[in-house]
Amino acid sequence: MIGLVDGNNFFVSCERVFNPKLIGKPVAVLSNNDGCCVSRSNEFKALGIAMGTPYFQLREREYPKGELIFLSSNFELYGDMSRRMISVLREMAIEVEQYSIDEAFIYPPSNADLEKYGCEVRETVLKWVGLPCGVGFAQTKTLAKIANHIAKKLSSGVFVLDQDSTKILSDLSAGEVWGVGRRLTLKLKAEKIFTAKDLRDADDETLRRIGGITLLRTAQELRGISSYEERDYDEDPESITCSRTFGEQITDKDSLMESIAVFTAQAAVKLRRHSMLASGCNVYAQLAIPGAAGRGGFLERTVVFPRPTDATNEMHAAIRPIAESLFINGSRYRKSGITFFGLEKEGRAYQSDLFSMEKHEASKSYAAIDKLNRSFGAKKVFSASEGIGPLKWQMKRDKISKRATTDWRELMTVK
User: Fold this and answer.
1) Which pLDDT does position 357 carry in this prediction?
2) pLDDT tier, 103 (very low <50, low <70, confident <90, very high otherwise)
3) Can you tell me the distance from the alpha carbon of 80 to that of 107, in angstroms, rounded to the nearest whole number?
4) What is the CB-side half-sphere exposure of residue 317 using CA atoms within 13 A?
């Protein structure tokens, strides 16, 4: 049996751990640049406000004039709380596969009483981390997703799906099955496949024709046949991307270059975390007017590094001269980003410059810099090209709470 542990209204729950006054109130966490609702408390959902509702449509109902409470996305806090939850699960399960920031598949001890074990997992996460969660057990990952969905509606927060799941699948629409999107749902309806049971019982040839091998694997999972291979979510990536929509559109070259330098540095940290080197990168910027230049208003450049590297300063030196050509005087920019390609493990042999006397020692120095920034807070040590002081293009987060677990300056105080 496989279990799925999923944090309830995860972003909101993280906020409530450090601000108990939010408990019982209709609270929503907003997306990047305070755009729309991406996490809602049960009280917020009860008001009939849909996921993804833009903030500007609800502004008039915001506290103190109204009953709604809104918070900006505090990704630093959510990421740290996620790591804490996963560390607890790793102490209690034989194996843990983290699926997303708030979800993880767990493999329970053999011969465990799953109902009792699930309650223990849920109670321990709540006690040690402060996060409520649902725990569902089933034969496959897809069925575990369904079990978890049911668990969240129960007072115990735990549900074990029987081997004969026909009744439950009959009451579940095919569109609610993990991996079945809106377009695929329309195709299934055209073939008179309306419920998860219909999807489970459909013949293989029909499923292949509608959605290929992926849909067939989903049906196999509903039949109780495990068809998804175990995935190592910490495995080395084939590429690394870092980008963001600006909180405020920018019109000057310095701000554009600062944003690219910041994203380069952030992506380089991810690269070093995997002990990898990058051979080059694609750097891009998006104009505020779609279609003004290229598809979707995107301008792109490719940079090949003189040698595979993980050194942020070497990357900056190679990227800046080429990235400057992305700037068009008089244009407004809404986004920029970078993608590293040609990734390879550090220490692998490569063709060096015959006439260069330099040795590649960047990993050691940047390992020290990364350690300092982890210990004392982000950007305690950084390149001047990333900008000094407040950056006007940074993501808009006017309602952000304290980063109580990752910033010394914002620790909780006891009065």
Assistant:
1) 47
2) very high
3) 23
4) 9
Rounded Cα gap, residues 236 and 340, in angstroms: 13
Tell me the CA distances in angstroms from 51 to 34, 42, 55, 183, 212, one per residue in order: 14, 12, 11, 19, 30
CB 249 within 8 A of CB 33: no
Please state, rounded to an integer, the average pLDDT across all residues of the chain: 88
Cα separation, 280 vs 315, whole angstroms: 9
Q: What confidence tens digit (pLDDT) does each residue in 208-233 have?
A: 999 999 999 999 999 999 887 665 55
Residue 278 has pLDDT above 60, yes or no: yes
Structure-block tokens of residue 17 = 């751990």
* CA 62 from centre of chain: 27
pLDDT value at residue 373: 82
The stretch 107-134 carries a mean pLDDT of 94
Taking CA atoms, 169 is separated from 14, 146, 157, 162, 174, in Å, by 32, 9, 20, 11, 9
Q: Which residue has the tokens 């993980």?
A: 310
pTM of the model: 0.76
In angstroms, the CA 128 to CA 264 distance is 36
Name the phi and psi angles at 279, rounded to 5.
-85, -25
In angstroms, the CA 195 to CA 185 distance is 10
Please spell the DSSP secondary structure of 217-245, one letter per residue: HHHHHHTT---SPP--TTSPPS-EEEEEE
Residue 163, Cβ density class (10 Å: 0-12 exposed, 13-18 middle, ≥19 buried): exposed
Q: Is 148 exposed, middle or buried (0-12, 13-18, 19+ CB in 10 A)?
A: buried
Structure tokens at 73: 């996305």
Beta strands in 116-224 (DSSP E): 133-138, 158-160
Report the run of H or E that residue 95 belongs to, with start and end.
strand 95-100
Which residue type sits at 41? S
Question: What angle, 0 to 180 degrees and rounded to 10, lies between the N-to-C axes of helices 182-190 and 204-222?
Answer: 120
Strands 95-100 and 69-71: unpaired
Instruction: Identify the top-confidence range among 67-76, 291-300, 359-368.
Output: 67-76
Which tokens belong to 146? 């369904």
Query: How far, in Å, CA of 331 to CA of 292, rounded?
Result: 9
- At 338-380, the pLDDT tens digits run 999 888 887 654 555 555 545 555 567 888 888 888 777 777 8
What percentage of the chain reaches a pLDDT higher than 90? 60
